[in-house]
Amino acid sequence: MSETLENLSSETRQFPPPADLAANANVTAEAYEEAASDRLAFWAKQAERLTWAKPWHQILDWSNPPFAKWFVGGELNIAYNCVDRHVEAGNGDKVAIHWEGEPGDTRTVTYAELLKLVSQAANTLTDLGVTAGDRVMIYLPMIPEAAVAMLACARIGATHSVVFGGFSVDALATRIDDADAKVVITADGGYRRGKPSALKPTVDEAVARGDRIEHVLVVRRTGQEVAWTAKDKWWHETVEQASPTHEAQPFDSEHPLFILYTSGTTGKPKGILHTTGGYLTQTSYTHHAVFDLKPETDVYWCTADIGWVTGHSYIVYGPLSNGATQVMYEGTPDTPDRGRFWQIVDKYKVSILYTAPTLIRTMMKWGDDIPAKYDLSSLRVLGSVGEPINPEAWIWYREHVGRERTPIVDTWWQTETGAIMISPLPGVTAAKPGSAMTALPGIGVEVIDDQGQPVPNGGGGFLVLTEPWPSMLRTIWGDDKRFIDTYWSRFEGVYFAGDGAKKDEDGALWLLGRVDDVMLVSGHNISTTEVESALVSHPSVAEAAVVGAADPTTGQAIVAFTIPRGNVDTAGEAGEALIKDLRNHVAKTLGPIAKPRQIMLVAELPKTRSGKIMRRLLRDVAENRSLGDVTTLQDSAVMDLISSGLKTAK
Ligand code: WT7
């Protein structure tokens, strides 16, 4: 990627932290120095933020890379750290979760109530024969029981594997099989887009495909009719009747905490394994540092689903270990109307909001007038995660949500990294819109060329992690070889993240998306992110996805799928004129080599349920192929919409 373009890193705007936030920040610039002078001592100090039942005797054992052991010999109980100790400290009446159901029903769960529920669930799982080391699948909507189920597993040392509630029978059955799980925790259904959607039938089918599952624990959420099998037990007839006391036993620092499957673009899903002490150390520390969480006053809200790693690390383990008060929302952002998120921020006086660029761009598309109707003055830190946030969306987020006051932390990490790795610190960093800026204290990041050499400032290449970190994946479940091949083989001695990145003249990092998403046009490497960013910087564009399509003359040609903003006229000649204007706009911003061969105006883009654009499908359209597998699409009607409503111009 030597000849990448110059657009993103020529962004010169910079936003220093607000003075009052900087003056009271949890973490200051000193942390970088501290970590630089003794990295392991720095992490040991963060581990001491937790309560250990038995101290470790070695901070890191890296004698058998890439298999790391952190806080060797130490023992702790994760649920104790996330729940009991806050109650013991006198904070039992403090709200842990302000839960908001999609239909508008609410529940408030204090830390004392959370302790009761987690203890009851731990007792029930034990009664069902679950013991330390067993695997439990969790397939639930966004209800408090999801967090309770995860914590109950952690409490008894069972390894949970959460499967996103929108996934199919196939996806669930494969994961049950790979994890060799014996219990599933699910619900009758959950609310999505204004109506109850069923979960239990999917579980019934997936469970019937094998003979591993012994018990299915079912939460009643919607009250809809469900079929019943001999394996099923209602949550309210078991958990809610169980003894509310349970003594948490400590587990080894390297005890397996969870397996989370990443779909990946090829091959069978990878079961990413995370363990106990290091994982909790880094999720807890980063939540404290990156969001500047003040547990006494802040109301925190992460809009992710618990089925993704973001939900694991920044709804359950990070925030609860820090004693946060948080909002948890069950449903979609446009139910009952497009103001729902802002109404929730207003209602609960949310002060820290963590969401994804795809959502921010959707909100942009819906219009500035929607957030403008709500009081968002409680917000003081905004976060972004999941994909590169283009400068345009960053600025919109700051202006229309943060009302020009709040810092934005663009946080780069992966299911595999377990916790945030690259991000601004809100009280320290003068952030540039679109850049994740720098590695957090104690994290080693580098951008290298294909020879494995670090690139100078101004250069681009592959993002790698140069030092083991506490919350790193320990392996791929049951497949050490794949773990080594996937992450540790491309470059000697470093973790290959699979992302392209650039360092600007100041050394700030700009993430460019997956390296598989780089196009080769007439011998030039051009990142899809850069062209998308250029398109979205045009006032008529809400969202764009770019792919490289095979081209007889240029090798690959750039094809862009573009969603116009709501008020833009795209009928007939106006549409043709817009396409022409957009092609010229990209050429002007990035250089003529990046001018898309073709621009299609579309109403929607195909996304996975975690919000990532499925470029594979767009490539099929661009290359006039019939569509591949669309089963992981969030909304499978999207592809019909795209195929039928295309407006193309050459
Ligand atoms: C991939 C990991 C991290 C939790 C959610 C996604 C992309 C993530 C950013 C960011 C640019 C980002 C990367 C990464 N990504 N955050 N702030 N800037 N890219 O977890 O599903 O494991 O995906 O998401 O490409 O490798 P995941």
From TrEMBL:
Cofactor requirement: Mg(2+)
Residues of the AMP-binding enzyme C-terminal domain: 530-612
Residues bound to Mg(2+): V536, H538, V541
Domain AMP-dependent synthetase/ligase, first and last residues per copy: 89-469
Residue sites binding CoA per the record: R192, R193, G194, K195, T310, S522
GO MF terms, alphabetically ordered: acetate-CoA ligase activity; AMP binding; ATP binding; metal ion binding
UniProt EC number: 6.2.1.1
Leader peptide range in chain numbering: none
Top-rank taxon, per record: Bacteria
Residues annotated for ATP binding in this entry: G386, E387, P388, D410, T411, W412, W413, Q414, T415, D499, R514
The entry's keywords: Acetylation, ATP-binding, Ligase, Magnesium, Metal-binding, Nucleotide-binding
InterPro entries: Ac_CoA_lig, ACAS_N, AMP-bd_C, AMP-bd_C_sf, AMP-binding_CS, AMP-dep_synth/lig_dom, ANL_N_sf
Posttranslational modification: Acetylated. Deacetylation by the SIR2-homolog deacetylase activates the enzyme.
Catalytic activity entry: acetate + ATP + CoA = acetyl-CoA + AMP + diphosphate
Gene Ontology CC terms: cytosol
Pfam families: ACAS_N (PF16177), AMP-binding (PF00501), AMP-binding_C (PF13193)
Stored CDD domains: ACS
Purpose: Catalyzes the conversion of acetate into acetyl-CoA (AcCoA), an essential intermediate at the junction of anabolic and catabolic pathways. AcsA undergoes a two-step reaction. In the first half reaction, AcsA combines acetate with ATP to form acetyl-adenylate (AcAMP) intermediate. In the second half reaction, it can then transfer the acetyl group from AcAMP to the sulfhydryl group of CoA, forming the product AcCoA.
Protein family according to the UniProt entry: Belongs to the ATP-dependent AMP-binding enzyme family.
HAMAP family referenced in this protein's UniProt entry, alphabetically: Ac_CoA_synth
Protein name: Acetyl-coenzyme A synthetase
Organism annotation: Actinoplanes derwentensis
Name of the gene encoding the protein in the UniProt record: acsA
